[in-house]
Amino acid sequence: MLPAADVVELSRLQFGLTAMFHFLFVPLTLGLSWILVICESVYVMTGKTIYKDMTRFWGKLFGINFAMGVTTGLTLEFQFGTNWAYYSHYVGDIFGVPLAIEGLMAFFLESTFVGLFFFGWDRLSKRAHLLVTFLVALGSNLSALWILVANGWMQNPVGAEFNLDTMRMELTSMSAVFFNPVAQVKFVHTVAAGYVAAAMFVLGVSSWYLLKARDTGFALRSFAVAAGFGMASVLSVIVLGDESGYTTGEVQKVKLAAIEAEWDTHPAPAALTLFGLPDQAAERTDYAVKIPYLLGLIGTRSLDTPVTGIKDLKKEHEARIAGGIPAYDALVRIKAGEDTPALRAQFDAHKADLGFALLLKKYTANVTDATPAQIRAAAADTIPQVAPLFWSFRLMVGLGLLFLFIFAASLWFLVRRNLAPQRWLLRLAVFAIPLPWIAIEAGWFVAEYGRQPWTISGVLPTRLSASALDVGQLQFSLIGLVGIYTLLFAIEMFLMLKYIRLGPASLATGRYHGETPATETRHA
Amino acid sequence: MPDYDTLKLAWWALIVALLIGFAVLDGFDIGAAILLPFIGRDDTERRLVINAVGPTWEGNQVWLVTAGGALFAAWPLVYAAAFSVLYGALMLVLFGLFLRPVGFDYRSKLADPRWRGGWDWALCAGSVLPALIFGVAVGNLFVGLPFAFDEQMRVGYAGRFVDLLNPFSLYCGVVAVAMLTGHGAAFLATKTQGALQSRARRAALAASVATAALFALGGVWIAQREGLTVAAIGDVGAALSPLAKTVVPTADWLGNFRAHPTLWAVPALGVALPLLAGLLAHGRRPRLALTASAAGVAAIILTAGVALFPFVLPSSLDAASSLTVWDATSSHKTLALMLGVVAVFLPIILVYTRWVYRVMRGPVTPERLDADTHSY
Fold first, then answer.
1. Which of A319, B116, B218, B337 fits a 20 to 30 Å CA distance from B125?
2. Cα nearest neighbour of B157 on chain A
3. Is residue A187 within 8 Å of A155, Cβ to Cβ?
């Protein structure tokens, strides 16, 4: 029995909410851990206490954020099983592997050493503690690597094959899964975006201290670390932007066409649509402002590869849906006991399109009796809503360019030793603190909303992936999750703001703003 | 590549080992948090309890996360069926677990006594709930869970959340809470001094004796409950569909013990070791008590695994849908690959975990708390 449509929608809502909520905390962990490594390395090399204080203060904020990352990450480890049971069965043979490796290789490392980062200052030598900090950073970043290998496989499922006897996808090549170009590009793009968020966080908070003229020595050094780290990261995000990952994999091609509102396939190299108003019903973009050649260059890294337009993709999908029907027909008859070599041959000939035939389940339980109209409707489902993707993508890119400007200006005035008078820049940096999170969530929205109607591109529709729960169960979990998350988020923000306001004085060293001994000048 | 049936057995052992790793390591910080509001009479004492587990609890919890990931990779059908059929229960586990990372980290960041008191109870509740529900879940394995597969391996359910709260399963939940409380108390006895330590020792004695008694009585109870056995199954060295086997009811879940009487040693240790742990704690040998307690936790969990074998997820709705070690696993290739990954990383994890415990060795004292501004 298929899960009810509203159960699927509620499960999607729950997964989207919990994943996006989790990803409010991940970027800071990814990036701040390296900033801690940088500060502590300077401390170990120079012996200057202020760099130890920087490590410990930013480490405190890291800890407040980390606790929420762990809390919200738990949900995701178990949610595939609770809400996406058929998905878990259907692709667990492949998808479970990176998740399990993530635990063994990365999450253990990160979590075992994070305690020592906080509690080990007096028990470890300087170098040993730096090693611990490095291992926390390495663990959190390796964690991202394996999660993105898993996610990349959802977008471009390579190295796997359907097994009729076990009714599931099975692993054929782990190296194909690991070196999946989509996964590799996503990893670099995602961690670099996390570094940008962390750099902007440190830059903005330091700017606030500078605007208030407090702890200036501490703030200026932190600002410098953040500006340098942020500049390198934002360049990586932009140069290694993940558009290059959009040429392989069925759903990736659709996403590329949708974020660029490419309705028709134009001769190569394709023009980039800068702005415009996508009209889904009429399949055209009004008032489009185009830059010739650019999309072809960015998207395909070549001058002669065309970018397939939405209308052509839809036609291709229509053919694949029709082509998958014989595979589904053979599958059902074999499962019913009619296991003949002829049917196995029929299945093998069409199994590449089995996933497309499963899209018809939404319209007819039998699949094999689908009418041409139903096939057309299922093909239309393979094209996500263009406008939200188009605009989210532009929001992300626009913010990325703003970050580039902020980091570049910050470095410029730092190098010229003329930062303090640039109050506009310091204010802009404070104001910009939340913006990387908006850009990151917009990016995830493009990647995952753009993946619909699939959970596994071309293999398994979302409609079939969900557990056959009832609405009441989803209501219970949604209310609980939203309630607890909201409460914890409010508490986290409260603590974060409180400790930012306290500043390095929270370390109780007696050296900082608001503390009694007047040793502040020594660092200024 | 090792034979498929060998790998299937190896993965049974590994999953059981990961669950034991979780219960033994995360078990004592769960137990410590359960005891927190009762054993710590003032703020300093409560901070001592929290800081006893503070530096290491985060790594301990990864045993649970990794067990989840390993279940997904090695037994995808179990991961899918168990977690969805236990939906409400698992959500409650999550809601409880949510309170722990933030509780440990945030509690001491403000001095306000209401704030701290609130987090103390949140930590306690966030630890009782998972312990109880994991116990209830294990109990329900013996009762059977209400799920069945269709021919395309889609899992369907019957029954409601309250059905999980049957007397036997609730009883198992109580055993789990007692077990982890005793284990947590034994750990606290190794990390504390003075009045707090003597309270921890008394708690360890009481909870461990209760665990042994409850576990033994549970054994008597289970002897009265109908079990399942596999009457016919295909070649266990090949890929098998769960629906292709024949499962029939038996008088009880003790068949494996009757077939291999040496296995009785496992439940016997499950009774004897907690008793020993309690006595050792009472006799001021906290480190030995903790070792005995850890071995006792392992014996109790292993007892459940051995009794159910080869079942890992019995179904009360359709006996043939019950999942076993032979037909719930990933492909031959995935099992072999993951075994290699575990063989490389598990020893590394054990080495660095041991190192972290060594660095953090020694009791927590009020003086140390005050000296270190990073204490919780």
1. B218
2. A468
3. no
State the Cα–Cα distance between residues A313 and A334, nearest whole angstrom. Answer: 31
Q: Is A159 on the interface with B (CB under 8 A)?
A: no
> Which residues in chain A touch residue B155, judged by CB atoms under 8 angstroms apart?
85-86, 89, 467-468
Separation in Å, CA of B35 to nearest CA in chain A: 22
Q: A352 and A453 share a domain? A: no
Dihedrals phi, psi of A290, to nearest 5 degrees? -115, 145
Q: Are residues A341 and A481 in the same domain?
A: no
Instruction: Please report which helix (H) or strand (E) contains residue A142, including its range.
Output: helix A126-155
Q: What is the ipTM of this complex?
A: 0.94
Whether A402 and A362 map to the same domain: the answer is no
Q: Please answer yes or no on whether B109 and A499 come within 8 Å at the CB atom.
A: yes
The answer to whether position A274 is within a domain reads no
Cβ proximity of A36 and A59 under 8 Å: yes
To the question of pTM greater than 0.90 for the whole model, the response is: yes
CB–CB contact B72 A74 (8 Å)? no
Helix (H, G, I), strand (E, B) or coil at A399: helix
> Is A374 domain-assigned?
yes
Q: Are residues A237 and A188 in the same domain?
A: yes
Instruction: Select from A357, A382, A407 the last residue of a domain.
Output: A382
- Any CB–CB contact under 8 A between A492 and chain B? yes
Task: Find the domain containing A391 and state its range.
Answer: 5-252+384-507
- Tell me, yes or no, whether A341 and A429 share the same domain: no
Question: What is the chain B residue with the closest CA to A473?
Answer: B88
Does residue A205 sit in the same domain as residue A67?
yes
Q: Would an 8 Å CB–CB cutoff place A67 in contact with chain B?
A: yes
Domain end marker among A382, A401, A428: A382
Asked whether residue A516 is domain-assigned, the answer is no
Taking the C-alpha atoms of residue A427 and residue A360, their distance in angstroms, rounded to an integer, is 54
Which amino acid, A442? A
Give yes or no: residues A179 and A117 share one domain. yes
Size of interface A-B (CB pairs under 8 A): 260
Q: Which residue has tokens 């008394």?
A: B202
Q: Which residue has the higher pLDDT, B302 or A181?
A: B302
Assigned domain for A404 exists: yes
Contacts of A492 in chain B (CB under 8 A): 102, 106
How close, in Å, is residue B169 to chain A by CA atoms? 20
- Phi and psi for A273 in degrees, rounded to 5? -85, 115
Chain B contacts of A56, Cβ < 8 Å?
374
Closest-CA distance, A123 to chain B, in angstroms, reads: 7
Q: Do A171 and B360 touch (CB under 8 A)?
A: no
Q: Whole-angstrom Cα distance, residue B224 to residue B220?
A: 7
Place of tokens 């619909």: A452
Residue of A nearest to B126 (CA): A71
Task: Answer whether B156 sits within 8 Å of A99, measured CB to CB.
Answer: no
Check residue A162 and give its pLDDT. 95
Chain A residue numbers touching B334 (CB-CB < 8 A): 93-94, 96-97, 170-171
For the stretch A193-249, pLDDT in tens is 999 999 999 999 999 999 999 999 999 999 999 999 999 999 998 887 755 566 666
Confidence of residue A510 (pLDDT cuts 50, 70, 90): confident
Domain count, chain A: 2
Give the other-Cβ count within 10 Å of B153's Cβ: 22
CA–CA gap between residue B334 and residue B75 (Å, rounded): 10
Q: Is A446 in the same domain as A346?
A: no
Residue A363, Cβ density class (10 Å: 0-12 exposed, 13-18 middle, ≥19 buried): middle
> Who among B56, B95, B334 is closest to A93 (CB)?
B334
